[in-house]
């Protein structure tokens, strides 16, 4: 399915990809769920991937909260730029290394739900009109939500399948 360009497409595709990801993970034998990924991948296992998704939900929600007050949020995070996102992702991985896969999945499910609620609270125009909000720059708020939901979930599922081959 192409990248969502309106609210309903975003809600539908984000939910579809969320369910596909969790259905795939839930169907795995316990040993596969705990399996380490091959070397060379930042995320070392499914727990890391789910924690990564959760943390990006949280960051996006923080951008939203700050941005909607008229302030400029630290995007992607304080002390980081889009060019240094790999460093940020390494810090995220370290932050969650001591939680269980079940905790990571619970965090992910909860932050998906709260991110979805933010999306639902806006009109199509509020989500997809470019330059509507100062904090989103030249893009739309919806593009941030697409990136952190449907597109990110698709990336996660592909990564997990590739690493568990």
Any overview of this molecule?
The protein has 165 residues and is an all-alpha fold. Helix content is 64%, strand content 0%. The protein is built from eight helices and no strands. The protein has helices at 7-27, 30-34, 46-67, 85-95, 101-120, 124-128, 141-148, 150-163. Helix 1 (7-27) runs antiparallel to helix 5 (101-120), helix 3 packs antiparallel against helix 7 (141-148) and helix 7 runs parallel beside helix 8 (150-163). It is globular and about 45 Å long. The mean pLDDT is 97.
Beta-strand residue percentage: under 5%
Structural class: mainly alpha
Shape: globular
Compressed to H and E, one letter per element, the order equals HHHHHHHH
Average pLDDT, rounded to a whole number, is: 97
Cα end-to-end separation: 24 Å
Work out the radius of gyration: 16 Å
Number of strands: 0
* Helical residue percent band: 55-70%
Separate helix tally? 8
What does the largest sheet look like? none
Low-confidence parts lasting 5 or more residues at pLDDT below 50? none
Please give the structural blueprint.
Blueprint: H1 7-27, H2 30-34, H3 46-67, H4 85-95, H5 101-120, H6 124-128, H7 141-148, H8 150-163
Helix pairs in contact: 1-5, 1-8, 3-5, 3-7, 3-8, 7-8
Briefly say what this structure is.
This protein has 165 residues and is mainly α. It has helices spanning 7-27, 30-34, 46-67, 85-95, 101-120, 124-128, 141-148, 150-163.
Salient structural properties:
mainly alpha, 165 residues, 0% strand
